[in-house]
Amino acid sequence: MSAANTAKKSVLVAVGVIENAQGEIFICQRNSNQHQANKWEFPGGKVETGETVAQALARELAEEVGITVLACEPFMQIEHDYGDKHVTLAIRKVTAFNGEPSGLEGQPSRWVAIRELEQYDFPEANGPIVEKLTAAPGA
Which residues are recorded as binding 8-oxo-dGTP (predicted)? Predict the structure, then answer.
């Protein structure tokens, strides 16, 4: 590994694919001052030291969108290099939750039919999530 790679910031991110009873997926728009500004994303956030992915996801979804995660299961994992940082996305499908998600940090958010996800501008790292969701039977 070169010195350039060791200096690069590496981040583990817990990502939630939240699906409602109608088969819609909840997405949020990133703020203009964030990395990948104004793009749409599946909510979640950085896994802090000492947290499991499930613990981080539950904390982040409570803080960001106001739901209590009751159950989640591994969906996929993605490694992506943005040039300025390397991210590992640990994606979980949220299979049970309490509350109605909304953008608690003022970010636009909405429920979207799976077949419509491709119409939204997601960060490049989220592409495989959209592909897997839209390729699933019944999408």
Answer: 30, 35, 41-44, 126
Share of residues in the chain with pLDDT > 70 (%) = 91
Starting at the earlier edge strand, list the strands of the sheet with 40-41. 40-41, 24-29, 109-113
pLDDT for 34 beyond 50: yes
43 is in an annotated binding site: yes
Instruction: Collect all residues with Cβ–Cβ distance below 8 Å to 50 and sequence separation of at least 6.
Output: none
Q: Which homologous superfamily is 3-135 in?
A: Nucleoside Triphosphate Pyrophosphohydrolase (3.90.79.10)
CA dist 135 and 52 (Å) reads 29
> Which residues are CB-neighbours of 69 under 8 A, at least 6 positions away?
16, 54, 57, 58, 61, 62, 94, 96, 97
- The verdict on whether residue 64 carries a ligand-binding annotation is yes
Q: Is 35 known as a binding-site position?
A: yes
Would you say residue 129 has pLDDT above 80? yes
